[in-house]
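CORE FACILITY INTAKE
Project code: CF-77B
Contact: R.S. (postdoc)
Sample description: multi-component assembly, three entities in total
Requested service: structural model of the whole complex
Turnaround: standard
Below are the sequence entries exactly as provided by the requester. Do not edit them.
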Amino acid sequence: MHFDDLAHNWGPLTASGLAQGAIYALFALGYTLVYGVLRLINFAHSEVFMVGSYAALITWGFFGLDENSATPPTTEVIGYVVLGVLVAAAISGITALVVELVAYRPLRRHNAPPLAFLITAIGASLVISEAVGVATHRNQRGVPPLIQPADAFTIGNTHVTNLEILIILLTLVMMVGLDRFINRTRLGRGIRAVAQSPDTAALMGVNKDRVISLVFLIGGLMAGIAAVMYLFKIGTTRYDAGFSLGIAAFTAAVLGGIGNLRGAVVGGIIIGLFENYGSALFGSNYRNVVTFVVLIVILMFRPSGILGEALGRARA
Amino acid sequence: MTTVQTILRWRGPDGGVRGWFGRQPRLVRWTLLAAIAAGAYALPYVGEVPVIGPQIVTEGVDWRTALFNISYFVLLALGLNVVVGFAGLLDLGYVGFFAVGAYTVALLASPNSDFKTNWPWLATVPVAIVITMISGVLLGWPTLRLRGDYLAIVTLGFAEIIRIFAENTTLLRGDRGFSGIPHPPGKHADGTPIFGVRDAGPYYWLGVSLIIVIVLAIRNLDRSRVGRSWLAIREDEDAAAIMGVRTFKYKLWAFAIGACVGGLGGVMFAGQNGFMNSASFQIQFSVLILAGVVMGGSGNIAGAILGGALISYIPDRLRGVEIAGQDAFQYRFLMFGIAIILIMIFRPQGLIPSRRRAMELKDRAKEVAPQ
Amino acid sequence: MRQGLVRALGGAAILALVVGAAGCNSGSDNDGGGGSSGGGKNCGYKIAFMGALTGSAANLGINIEQGYELAIKQYNEKNGADCIQVAKFDTQGDPAVAPGVARQAVSDPKVIGVVGLPFSGESEAAGPILNDAKIPNISPAATNPTLSTHGWTYFHRAVATDKNQGPAAAAYIQDVLKPQKVFVADDQSAYGSGLAEAVKAKLGPMVVATDKTSADGKQTDFSAIVQKIISSGATVFFYGGYYTNAGLIRKQLTAAGWKGTMVGGDGVKDPGFAKAAGNAAAAGTVVTCPCAPASEAGGTFVADYKQTWNQDAGTYSDVAYDATNIFLKGIDEGNTTPEKMNEFLKTVEYTGVANTYKFTDTGELDPQYLKVWAFKFDASGVDQPVQQIKLTS
């Protein structure tokens, strides 16, 4: 156990952990929304994320950008980033919708037992990741160096880069936007109603199918944005990139309180920090172990999470 | 009734093939089953059957090795079927039990092991069974109170933790692995070992014998109070608890039995392979076995056997075949993923349905509120 | 009604798949119907290749397979088409798959030699089978020293081991790079950890910190190890592992602003490293290899390889070429059974394009012929030879 490593690097680990946590938070939103409404762990969500990352890379590839290109001028970079985010979000959203339509809706029609939903979710996850894996020959794909990491400011030995600031800001903006959407708009009310009681909501005139599709779409959009942030932070993607991130993001959702949007953010940040601290303490090969142990401990002692499950509950 | 209609009406009013089978006198049933078992033992020689023999036999892998692979996959499918099919608990970390069984053998028997005990293979088998059962109970104790979906993720987590520890601790030797794991005992008349290195046939026969024993044991369990409790838990856990079924105890039983069978699979694998390392135990393996159980028909033994055989046989058969520039073996997860989705939508009770299961699903479908 | 239909369709689909696959396969049973199909003297035999043709480190296996196949092609041009047949077996580099594949290979009585297996893990798994079947095998790439300690009389190795490569890499770091602090990490594979241990042992106190990563292809986010390297102040980072992980780490190190040099072993010596890291980040990385540069290869090997496969020869392609040619020379001299071939291998001294080969009684290469070279990646992602490293041990 390397306590000195942890102590010495606490600053950089925290900065990196916050950025990572922000990505987890965006990613976790998809899990938490779907679970809040359908009581289903959408295993395919990690693949939705991965597909978004490839969509952004392919879009940039159309402009001739690949991992060996030079960094374009700043105005162009902004354009590319915005375009990448839009495309990734769109493709992820569409993928999520397709998964819902093809894999889950028929099961809802038959009132299948929850086990069937879970198994189908695993099947969907497998199909998407394997299809991409076969198409890419299981090779990883590099990201064009659009954002050159530069220190924005320095505190002690901690260099906070512009990328990390961008990620955190973007996540905050998305979260605030989503929060207002869920709490202030009519569609958001519909989502909360279906989360609380699907049949009653239907009786009250809420179109259940449309709400569920909307929930998947929103989750997909968030995942697509998270995917682009991930691309810039890690610099590469692969057909199985979704798996370990998916586990971490799901843990974050549960930690914060599944179904609770603010909980997803809190959970994401905590998981991001813990993973980094744990890697410093035990070695980076134990990173996933830290996540799982956190998950198991939470589920055993406080399954409703830190902020409690809340999507269905009316909030003051 | 035309011939086609007769053929397609397999699920006739009196239960089709299975109904017919159930109505035969006991002697006939047992004879048929014995014939099927004999056929299983004869499979290594199927390559010599004219015309269809060479089509069935695998190309890229030795046929007897492929048969052995089928046998331990079937064993694992049977074990997972107890957990998922009978008790309705989604265990995504089943490969963990397989790993525990294999590592127990390796630690006790391999010359590389730090324990330096160097036991023969046979002596390690009961120890492996006990240890996997204990690990099943240890895994189940804290987690079985969780909801179904959380249970799935937590079991996944346990399997990953086991794999990461296997990879990273010096005791379990990570990727360097254990070599020189002894094989099952026995010598031919001329002194050469029965369970040698080059012929996987004896391992396959051992596997089939083990499967028969396990099938008999599980079948008896299924027809006892334990099996009925599992059925009640699966259908509606709260109602079962109200009616006095000790749900926690029986769920733990399911886990322990599933773990024990999984460990047996690991023991067989270690004994045949002679070498194993942490790379042998990936999460995808659990998902593959789950796919097999689901495809074959969860909740019934014949379905589990069929499913287990399919998930092992089809990829091995496709090794060496090229589809779109890649070895078809690469497509196996894609194929099984699609198969899972299709099965869950169109035929959730699996290829060989358990009639009980089919009825359960039909009842549920009736409860759907009009859309 | 619908269920019966679904059953019928499902059964038909499975049947079609199997028959279709069989149709693709039935050709292979008809090849080489015994006897000599060419005009050459000792024809009708097979030399098998076993190794990873698919998977995350497949490039290494494919390079070797192409070297092996080139040698056979050239031999067949001289001695009649299909004189010696190619028999490729894909193990995916997986030790769980290797035994089944090995049994398949040895069950063919025409196979009298095996070129393979390239990875140490799978060699451990398949070794007992090849030895029990008494099929001589020459590994052109497996560098784990323990392979020759099992007493396998049919095992031979055409390259130096990590016992040589590790200290050589350490010597290069000490003598040429001359850092104050070194960081060593590995991917915990049999190959990677063995190599890293050897380097650590030789560098001693120069190593300020160590870490481990997940196996190759299993991890994409290396931010934790990147942090450690940066905060340790090391100017040289040695990684024992394969090119996919190494490339990603190098890329993330550059993105985090680390300016030091990365050093790797032969598992990193592949264009895949530059692809994973990006050419700019990969430039300057040093890799060692118990092999000579392809440009040093004698004869027309480099040109022939490029012409046949439309790619430049990769790591160990030349060694595989030589290993295959050793078998072919044995066949030429009338050693057409596995036992005779093994006897031939015990005494052969063969000069090929990459090296001269003579085997000790444990199957290792004679110490006078061991060589380790250092290479450096240039700005276009190609590894260029730097110098041969003197072996002191």
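Facility notes:
- Residues 78 and 146 of chain A are 9 Å apart (CA to CA).
- The first helix of chain A runs from residue 3 to 38.
Invoice: internal transfer
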